[in-house]
Amino acid sequence: MRALPRSFLQCLQGLICCLSLALPAMALAMQQPPVSTGMPGYQHTAWRVGQGAPGDIWDIAQDRDGLLWLATGSGLYRFDGRRFERQAPLAGQRFPSTNMVTLARDAQQGLWIGYFQAGISHSQPGRLDNYGRAQGVPVGVVPRFEHDRNGRLWAAVNGGLRWFDGQRWQADASTGLPDRRVQWVFQDSHGTLWVLADLQVWSRPAGASRFTSTGIAVSQMSTLAESPRGEVWLADRNRGTLPLADRDGLLPASKREARRLPGLLASRMQFTANGDLWATFSPHGGVARVSFDGDTATGIERFDTAEGLTATSAVPVVLDREGNIWVGTNLGLNRFRARSVQTLAVGPTDPYRSLVRADDGRVYGYGEDLQPYDLRRQLLDRSAKELQAAARRDARPMWQFDWVNLARTEAGKTTRIPLPAPFTGQPSHALLFPDNDNAWVCAGEQAVLHYQAGHWLREPRLPERACSSLAQGSDGSLLLGYADGRVRRLDSNGVATYGTAQGLDVGPITALLQHRDLLLVAGESGLSVRIGDGRFMSVRTDLAGVLEGITGIVVDGRGRVWLNGSRGLVRLQETTLRSALLQGTPLSPRLFDAVDGMPGIALQSGPIPTAVLAADGLLWLATNQGLAWLDTTQNHIDTQAPGVRIGDVLYGDTHQPLTEGLHLPAGTTQLQIDFVALSLARPERNRYRYRLSGVDDSWQDAGSSTRAYYTNLAAGSYRFEVEAANEDGVWSQEPASRSFRIAPTFVQTVWFKLLCALAVLLVLAMAVRVRSGQLAALFRARLQERHGERERIARDLHDTLLQGSQGLILRLHAISQSERTPEPVRAQLESAMQLAERNLAEGRERVNALRDGPFSGRDLATALADVHAEYAGEGTNPLRLTVEGTPPPLQTDAAEEVFLIGREAIRNALRHAQASAIEVELSYGPRSFLLHVRDDGIGIADPGASHGHWGLQGMRERAQRLGAELQLWTRPGLGTEVALAVPGRRLYQRRAPRWRWPWSRPTHD
Hints:
Number of helices: 10
Number of strands: 69
Strand content: 35-45%
Largest sheet: 5 strands, mixed
Strand order of the largest sheet: 1-26-25-24-23
Radius of gyration: 55 Å
Helix content: 10-25%
Distance between the termini: 159 Å
């Protein structure tokens, strides 16, 4: 064998040396960020298997309404933030398997489901389509669905990549992709379609038809994701997590390697808007969050079962539309929500932490040891020693206190300033540092002291009483709050005092703030605000007690009012506050509590405000559990209006979904309607209002309750509407609604009401008939009594007046026949006797009329003709009598009244009208009777006058009693006509009915 040349051996040795030097360098080039345990910037919430959550959660998807859908080993579940509901297919349909591993939403709100070994399903409202080998789906796990830019749906299946043509799943051999071991399919924001197939990374740029291999090898179960910077990242179970490409294409191998995170052996990835990478680990490892500064990973936070994760094996990690991170494990569901408030972990450790703001806007924190911490934004990731060192390097003076002394730190040196005698050693209740040279102190029970230019002064205009709070007004005035609930303002004009007379009633004053024309005064029992020179107005909210114990007030540059109190940090919008005060309506404040990261509640016993706003936009808070901060440059508002889902309705013992147009059974009077807001950030903070048409006149405030109760409902159609607001007070854009109908019982139907009305009418008819019978009997009794009285009067007249008149006539006749009677007297006596005989005859006639009535067996026409014959004599004033119709039987009393009216009219024509002819017409109509009496006499000069015409007045009175209409036409020299119209029911006798009720009594009219 021939020996190798020396030159070749030397080259080989050099190559080995270079490789030995390069490999460590490459290893050092990989990123190794520090790893910490726990996620202090996030609030974790867990739903475990024992609390109703499903296990073996393999994928999570969110629909357009905000609901979460979970693919699990035991089927499909839906989660609304409160309840997990297992979704069963429609009747007559079934899922191919309960072992679901992949979910994807489509544009029509359908849901694509991938199974472990059972193909694919497409669930749509009212329909379920299953696809297996017969429909082109190869055998194997379906780990991923993806829609490309053209709307085509792709499915990564272990047996190959498939796309859906609307009917079947198709394989395309012309793409150049191996048809085996396809693990993932993903389209980036630039239109490139990435596929992990046959343990390699393949890509197809937008517009291309074939996939090309990148030459990058991957392990089994690798996945892809895209960052907000447009970078495509690979999670490899063997090599770790690394970027593959950016918007310019595939990254060079050296750059990929330099940014690789070898310790992050993730199963799934999810990037957030701020660039953080969330990763899950399986079969163990929990979840991790990686933070970046540009291309450099600055830290990894791990979260596992020891920190509260439901299980160490985690697969799906999803970002919802509200910014929450959801992680599914094999023992439940987890939510990570970014905390708005961050705790300063390296600050002062003693119970009393204080804050002070320097003239340049910097904020410092310190404890009882007076060691200051520089709290600038860029220093917050430093250690405690570094924060203290930064504070000592600041040459500007800084005010501090140690309860009985003031302290002034300058250039790292602290000088204590004791209070003047006799207040030396007395505790301070309130402090104010307007600038570097001035300080105000309320100490002991009486002292209000002013430290200026190295000297202590007392303000003689103020009462000798220590205050509980101090603040500087926007005009440079001094504001003092007192334990008795009053506030004083000290300025060049003197001292103004505000109390209950000005509407201020919040208890002992704990904080003050003057912001433009607003004066905010906080007390132990609430908050009061004065606008301009008006009265103080109490601020009302829909969260009880949220404005109590406020010890710090700040207004930021966006017009948001921040209140640090005994319930947490409260945010109000200045414009909303003004509007609510002027309209007298309650506010809906945003409360930041432990879930949002507040380590405790506001300090209640410090002499300085517990809320301070730094120039860099950080709001610093002093709590009983440490110092905390909130970045006011961030929005901290969930602007996503929540949708609302109306759930089940409970009536009686029946529980069913409240669907549109639901018909509820008859007799339903009580309902319980369930609903829930589709906001997953803080479901317990969602607020609701609802109304039921026909019952509620306006919206009913339900608070955080997710149920509406109604009682005493009647049958009919109803429409239920509900709106929801998230924790930031953003209300639904439109209410969710359902219409339903309650069927009527028989007693609630129209037929029953008609029967009731008919029964009432029958009862009324019976009552009228019975009453009519009673009245008729009473009338008959009175008529008999009247006839008896007439007979009695007739007898009395006959026995007295007529007999006496007859005797008187006989006496006069005897006198007239006496011889001693002079002839002139006899003639007069004869004339008087003739007149007396005529009167006696008329009297007998009247007596007969009283006994027998005016007719004495005659009809009305004959009776009126007899009247004319009696008063007109033979051959004078002829009478023309006309009768129309057949005279029916008449009611006696009414006929008598008609006769008397007609008789009076005829007598007037004969006696006063000087008529040469008289016409009488009687018309018996079916509904009325008409009587006309006409003459051609001289007429009546004034027919309306009653004086001197008692006959006319009597006629009118009789007509009125009859209910008849009497009319009189006359003109001087042209005669007179009297017309009488009588309703037939008042004159004609009623005909006996052909039938009658069994209980009715026959009439004998």
